[in-house]
Design goal:
Layout (H helix, E strand, L loop, with lengths): L2 E10 L2 E11 L4 E5 L6 H9 L6 E6 L2 E2 L5 H7 L1 E4 L11 H6 L12 H6 L1 H5 L10 H13 L5 E5 L7 H18 L2 E6 L2 H7 L2 E6 L2 E7 L5 H9 L1
Parallel strand pairs: 3-8, 3-9, 6-7, 7-8
Antiparallel strand pairs: 1-2, 1-4, 4-5, 9-10
């Protein structure tokens, strides 16, 4: 497995939010982690990238143990992260935002394929990130993560605050990029239609533990929707 997580335990103070979870992501696979707000999705992803400390467990990427590493070393090892809310730099231009994802490069030049994939970013490359729409900001955040050539791209609630038509475009773009660039995808999501467009496998998280798992061929959308509505 490309990403292998075992017995991960994350706490806020004395509150145990992630309860010894284990899962894996294969090369070129897309895994959707779904669940209602407050069930642990964002906490889990922040622990993977190193924004929150884990109290225990193992996070291995391509055989390298990431647990205990700072976030920048996890990125260097091959994790890319698009946080909930996108967290772009509103006062920097589009081009400057993308270049922040290439800090380790001696002479950073934005690859042509980034602008070919996201032509609106090329058109607006001199505009401040804060002046973009929600969908454009999401494209910018994805582009910023992708210029680091991640082995696993992690997306936290990528459809939040985005129009349905743009959500479909993002799903198509991610599927094409994954095939072309060869990365794996780990997505936390509440919008089932988006997850069904991109995911090979589904995990439902309930109170910090996984309550349901299914491959795409066997998934029961009604059952997933029931978890999301409870």
């Amino acid at each position: 497995m490309l990403l292998d997580v075992r017995d991960l335990d994350v706490r806020y103070g004395e509150s145990r939010v992630i309860r010894g979870v284990a899962f894996s992501v294969a090369k070129a696979e897309t895994l959707a982690i779904m669940g209602r707000n407050g069930m642990g999705k964002t906490t889990l992803l922040k622990a993977l990238i190193g924004m929150l400390p884990a109290r225990g467990g193992s996070i291995r990427l391509d055989g390298i143990e990431l647990a205990g590493m700072p976030s920048y070393r996890r990125v260097a090892a091959g994790l890319g992260f698009v946080p909930q809310g996108r967290m772009i730099f509103s006062q920097l231009t589009v081009e400057e935002n993308i270049l922040t994802g290439m800090e380790s490069a001696k002479r950073p030049v934005i690859p042509r394929w980034i602008y070919d994939t996201f032509p609106v970013l090329h058109e607006m490359r001199g505009r401040n990130g804060g002046n973009l729409s929600g969908g454009q900001q999401q494209q910018l955040a994805i582009a910023r993560a992708l210029v680091g050539e991640p082995k696993v791209l992690i997306l936290d609630e990528p459809t939040e605050g985005i129009q349905p038509s743009i959500i479909k475009d993002i799903a198509r773009t991610l599927n094409r990029l994954k095939a072309e660039r060869g990365f794996s995808l780990l997505v936390s999501e509440q919008v089932l239609s988006f997850a069904l467009e991109v995911a090979d496998r589904f995990l439902i998280i309930e109170r910090g533990e996984f309550a349901y798992e299914a491959q795409r061929a066997d998934v029961d959308p009604a059952r997933i929707q029931a978890f999301l509505k409870i």
